[in-house]
Task: structure prediction
Amino acid sequence: MKAVIFAGGLGTRLWPLSRRKSPKQFEKIVGEKSTLQLSAERLLPEFNPEDIFISTGKDYVNIVKEQLPFIPHENIIAEPAKRDVGPAVGLMMGILATRFPEESVIILWSDHLVKHIELFKKTIINAGEIVKKHPDRIVFIGQKPRYPSENLGWIETGAEKIALGGSSFRSFEGFKYRPDQDEAMNYFRSDKYCWNLGYFVTNTKNMYDMFKQYAPMIHEAIEQIVHKKGEAFVEALDTHYPQLPSISFDNAILEQLDTKAAYAVIEDIGWSDVGA
Result:
């Protein structure tokens, strides 16, 4: 199983602590390590360093190498231009689908905190087993809500479909974006809803195929990049990636997703988003 941690954001919500030259994921906001370091280290030892990939901007590559010396340099992918999360995910899925088409992968973000690390890892591994058996599915990992947040996205779930390793994988019924006060309270009181963390487990090829289906312009450009190696890869990345549209991953893929193609699991992993 592979893991991709996205670490290219500017962290504007935490200005002036987070600045363009050193966004929040590289700062020691809690404790003596950055949230990027915490995000990568909490995957160990269940994930080998060579199975962890970092997506970041070209201006931050040296910071990533300094903070995560155990990650192979070739696993740090530098976007030559900022094009929002849609193209960033597409690029990483293209790279992994080309190299590891049968693998499951967990998508993570570098500016989050997780308190209950063992439960977090167990949930990832269980979700990976689901995807291994059902490679055409996505598994969304949600946080059991601690309060009726109006600032976070929510996931609506349905009946349990699969029980595995102590985790209950439910039907996925859809996303609920930033509800008003009354809606948030209703979600909080119901056991059908959870906070949407943006964490999901999928098969690399399945996700890349979704870009071909739902975002063909992105897929076509990435195809010009991911089959190259060495300097040819870098040249193709510098040429084609900046031409991609700036579009969120939600707009590019998730809003078009068939709900029957996904499961969701709700756990109390002690998650929080520093910026929120």
User: Anything to note?
Assistant: Residues 168 and 265 are 6 Å apart (CA to CA). The longest strand covers residues 154-164.
